[in-house]
Design a protein that fits this description.
Keywords: Membrane, Transmembrane, Transmembrane helix. This is CBO0543 family protein. It comes from Paenibacillus oleatilyticus. There is one protein chain. This protein has one domain. The chain is an all-alpha fold. The relative contact order is 0.15. The protein is 65% helix and 2% strand. The longest helix is centred in the middle third of the chain and has 25 residues.
């Protein structure tokens, strides 16, 4: 695929992700921003590690002189997806439903990544496979959920000191 087409894929992804932000309820902006920033911290570290260790390469990317990771995915798309993951999390459902929710979001990210890896130069797996991506995505969702629950835990009235 030509570099021109790959650049337009990046522009399309940015446009769709920016448009999706319009669907965040106004009363959830604080939660959304907290989720977004926490997920960026995780993906920044993991993204840099896998690139520096030579497991993944991003031949076509934004800010190619500054950073070897995929700015589009690591710093924008994935954190925005995590916002929707958290805001629509099945809080009052059973364990199997929650596990299926994690698996659905993880697989929903992995399928386009796998297609992009095979048909474009936006991502190249060097010493990486699709199941490592699936595991790392799943675990970062779990870690983000733990943080979200910890950060936004409700204060019980019996725990408030006078």
């Amino acid at each position: 695929m030509s570099r021109f087409v790959e650049q337009w894929i990046l522009v399309f992804v940015w446009g769709m992700t920016l448009a999706s932000l319009l669907f965040i309820p106004r009363d959830k902006y604080r939660s959304a921003l907290t989720i977004f920033l926490f997920k960026q911290c995780i993906t920044w570290l993991l993204g840099l590690l896998v690139v520096e260790w030579g497991w993944i390469d991003y031949p076509v990317r934004l800010f190619w002189k500054v950073n070897a990771t995929s700015f589009t995915f690591e710093y924008f798309v994935y954190p925005v997806i995590c916002i929707f993951f958290m805001l629509h999390y099945p809080e009052r459902r059973g364990g199997w439903t929650k596990l299926a929710y994690y698996a659905a979001f993880t697989t929903g990210i992995l399928v386009p990544e796998y297609v992009i890896e095979h048909y474009t130069r936006l991502i190249d797996y060097l010493h990486w496979t699709w199941y490592w991506s699936w595991i790392s995505l799943f675990l970062t969702f779990v870690l983000s959920r733990w943080f979200y629950v910890w950060y936004f835990k409700p204060v019980r009235p019996d725990k408030i000191k006078p």
